[in-house]
């Protein structure tokens, strides 16, 4: 059984506190949408699909928190809660997607009682569907991987970045479940170390062979034929096939091109932003202390200037394919992505 990152239980949201991993597997319970917003902001929950569902659960909590009997007043209250939740993190498009879906359900309700029931049920359905979508994506992607492949991944696009099963790690899980013998190389993913703290933890938890490397060993492992294929997740994908993912992804993709190693991306359709252009995408800039120290230990001089972007953009020409629940988009990506959406 893979880890369940986030769940609705007895009118509360229960999630794994990912800031405590890999040292302790601890669950936190929230009944206030402001707590959910804080959890997204502070990376208690992270990963694009996971924050999409967290946003939806947050809005469902907001609906239950309000004691108004007037539907319009409740909608205004939800609009405000939506703003608070939306402003937590700017890059992953799934957050806006999850919030928008719940607002639509709220607006369509005929009464306050119906609104509350419907938004809770819909958010729960989104969480269940997330796992199903990941499993379908996993199956679709598993055909791209062969027996005895060693697959590199960056950051965490696993069960912990979703409700369960994972996107990129979902493809890895499905490949293993199909009977192929595979190994994984996980990058450490400085500065927040989602690779060492989360990917290494979850693959080890599930008995998948994983080796951890420092980010600086990406070139070495490729140059020494220690990697056959690469798969990562995504926080936002544009209609043109530009992929926004954890900082360092662009370096991995560029290095993969240099060594002729196929570089794949796995993401659900909810991660696609079909309207924006690259100049519209806001890259989250995170605090300097993530770079100037490791845990409580200072590793840089006081007062040093720091540049700490959380994401970067990988251009379509570096990508061999984008795996979705509706199929695999291949070169030329823009045309292929359009077809996936038309078939949807
Ligand atoms: O800052 P995070 O941990 O929320 O970033 C998440 C990522 O960038 C993941 O690598 C990922 O691929 C997107 S979520 C499946």
**Structure summary, number of beta strands:** 16
> Structural class, please?
alpha/beta
Gap between N and C termini:
30 Å
The value of Rg in angstroms is 20 Å
Give the mean pLDDT: 97
Describe the structure.
The model has no long low-confidence stretch (mean pLDDT 97). This protein starts with 5 loop residues before the first strand and ends with a helix. The protein is globular. It has a 7-stranded mixed β-sheet with strand order 6-5-4-7-10-15-16. Strands 11-8-9-14 form a 4-stranded mixed β-sheet, with helices on one face. By secondary structure, the chain is of the alpha/beta class. Helix 1 packs parallel to helix 3 and helix 4 runs antiparallel to helix 5. The protein is 41% helix and 17% strand. Bound molecules: 5-S-methyl-1-O-phosphono-5-thio-D-ribulose (MRU). 5-S-methyl-1-O-phosphono-5-thio-D-ribulose binds next to helix 2 and strand 9.
Summarize the structure.
By secondary structure, the protein is of the alpha/beta class. Helices cover 41% and strands 17% of the residues. Helix 1 packs antiparallel against helix 2 and helix 2 runs parallel beside helix 4.
Question: Can you tag this structure with a few keywords?
Answer:
Rossmann fold; 344 residues; 11 helices; binds 5-S-methyl-1-O-phosphono-5-thio-D-ribulose; seven-stranded mixed sheet; 2 domains; 16 strands; four-stranded mixed sheet; globular; alpha/beta; Four Helix Bundle (Hemerythrin (Met), subunit A); 41% helix
